[in-house]
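Lecture notes, unit on protein representations.

Consider one protein chain, 64 amino acids long.
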Amino acid sequence: MKADLLNPEAVKVAISMLPVTEGRKENLVNAYLVFCRQHKIPFTPPRYRRVERVPWIPLESEVD
């Protein structure tokens, strides 16, 4: 998905439509926030909440 980096609203829409996890969207918003600060672009970031997942632990029979 493409978006004009100088248009914060277009970037918000582009990030929200990506087929990635909430944690990845949070990272993208944080990176774009740094870009906006460097270029003095006003940006109010949307909030994404990272969803904690249970780690996959193989059975002992799968380890052998």
